[in-house]
């Protein structure tokens, strides 16, 4: 397995097994250069979002990387301020314009239950409208695949009542400290790939003693062990860094294997550091 190996999604499209995340990457030169460095290091999967405010810089990085567009898998996401079919259609075009692309490989609903609509139209109607627009984007050739992010089983169950296209992925905050077992099991049962954003727990899990010990045993970094755990679980990790040496290191995952005992030990680390928020209770 390498950075260019792929999973096959439930619609038959292929997606590289590791992605390069850009959440919290500043807009401008930092985002552009980090994308260039990632593509130079062998990544072929770049993940961004409208709310990250760096789509234009990510697009410049892709354009200036020297890597052919068709060899790069690009993901972006529609944010909470888009609640209708028409707003989402406009958001698709806006993201494409910022990225400088004719199409994206994957477009996600970023958050399942935005606070402003909870007491008005409700998440079920909002998500149905946004999803209908994403399906129209697929029909128009602007999007190859569509999926969700931060969705819990009840959000997907509601979406599937009206969806003509099933979600191909559910991008979650998943790492050794927050394993979201119930959601991951639901995804697997519905042939939805689990993508793991913040697979290093925003850095917090890297100091957990048990993870450090396993890393030392393998002659690897704690980050590499956390990412390998994600891969061996069948997830798609999206490590983020703006440091060239760490970008390279985070992609060097294919010359070692975690043992059954290693995996079992890491599985006990649930709750060791920060946990994700409940998407039905957040204030955004």
TrEMBL record:
Domain NADP-dependent oxidoreductase: 18-269
Residues of the signal peptide: none
Residues annotated as site: Lowers pKa of active site Tyr: 77
Residues that bind substrate: 110
Alphabetical UniProt keywords: NADP, Oxidoreductase
Database matches in Pfam families: Aldo_ket_red (PF00248)
Molecular function terms from GO: oxidoreductase activity, acting on the CH-OH group of donors, NAD or NADP as acceptor
Catalytic residues (UniProt): 52
Top-level division of the source organism's lineage: Bacteria
InterPro entries referenced in this protein's UniProt entry, alphabetically: AKR (IPR020471), Aldo/ket_reductase_CS (IPR018170), NAD(P)_OxRdtase_dom_sf (IPR036812), NADP_OxRdtase_dom (IPR023210)
PANTHER family: 2,5-DIKETO-D-GLUCONIC ACID REDUCTASE, NADP-DEPENDENT OXIDOREDUCTASE DOMAIN-CONTAINING PROTEIN
Membership in a protein family: Belongs to the aldo/keto reductase family.
Protein name: Aldo/keto reductase
UniProt organism field: Pseudolactococcus laudensis
């Amino acid at each position: 397995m390498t950075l260019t190996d792929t999973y096959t999604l439930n619609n038959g499209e292929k997606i590289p097994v590791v992605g390069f995340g850009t959440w919290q990457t500043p807009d401008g030169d930092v985002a552009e250069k980090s994308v260039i460095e990632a593509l130079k290091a062998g990544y072929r999967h770049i993940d961004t979002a409208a709310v990250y405010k760096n789509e234009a810089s990510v697009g410049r990085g892709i354009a200036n990387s020297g890597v052919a567009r068709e060899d790069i898998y690009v993901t972006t996401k529609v944010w909470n301020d888009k609640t209708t079919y028409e707003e989402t259609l406009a958001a698709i075009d806006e993201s494409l314009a910022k990225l400088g692309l004719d199409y994206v490989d994957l477009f996600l609903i970023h958050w399942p239950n935005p606070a402003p609509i909870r007491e008005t139209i409700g998440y079920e109607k909002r998500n149905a409208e946004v999803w209908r627009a994403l399906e129209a984007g697929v029909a128009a050739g602007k999007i190859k695949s569509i999926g969700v992010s931060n969705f819990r089983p009840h959000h997907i169950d509601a979406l599937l009542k009206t969806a003509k296209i099933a979600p191909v992925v559910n991008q979650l905050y998943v790492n050794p400290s927050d394993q979201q077992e119930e959601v991951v099991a639901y995804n697997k049962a519905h042939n939805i790939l689990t993508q793991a954003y913040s697979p290093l727990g925003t850095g917090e899990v890297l100091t957990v003693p048990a993870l450090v010990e396993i890393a030392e045993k393998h002659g690897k970094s704690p980050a590499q062990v956390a990412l390998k755990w994600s891969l061996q679980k069948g997830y798609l990790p999206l490590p983020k860094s703006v440091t060239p040496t760490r970008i390279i290191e985070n992609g060097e995952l294919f010359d070692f294997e975690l043992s059954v005992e290693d995996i079992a030990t890491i599985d006990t680390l649930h709750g060791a550091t920060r946990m994700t928020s409940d998407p039905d209770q957040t204030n955004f």
